[in-house]
Amino acid sequence: MIKMTRYLFFTIFICSISLLGKAQDISSLILKAKQKIDKVNDYEAAAKMKTNVTFLKVPIATVKVYFKKPNKLKVKSEKGISFIPKGAVSINMNSILGNNDYTVIDAGKDKINNIPVRVARLLPNDDNSDVVLSTIYIDEITNLILKAKTTTKENGTYELEMSYGKYASFGLPDKIVFSFNTKDYKLPKGVTFDFDDGSNKNPADKAKAKKGRAEITFSSYTINKGLPESVFL
Amino acid sequence: MWNLLQIELYKISKRPRTYIAFAAITAIVAIFQFAFKADGGSYMNLMLQSVQDTFDMDKSKAINGYFMCYIILNTLLIQIPILVALVAGDAISGEANMGTLRLLLTKPISRTQIILVKFAASMIYTIGLLIWMALMALFVSLLIFGADDMLIFRVKGDESQILLITKDDIMWRYFAAFGYAAVALTVIAALAILLSVFAENSIGPIIATVCIVIVCTIISNINVPIIDNTIKPWLFTSYLVGWKGFFYINTNADGEPIKGSIENWPAIRNSLYILLAHIFILIGAAVFVFKRKDILS
Question: Which of A52, A169, B64, B250 lies at a 20 to 30 A Cα distance from B171?
Answer without folding.
Answer: A52
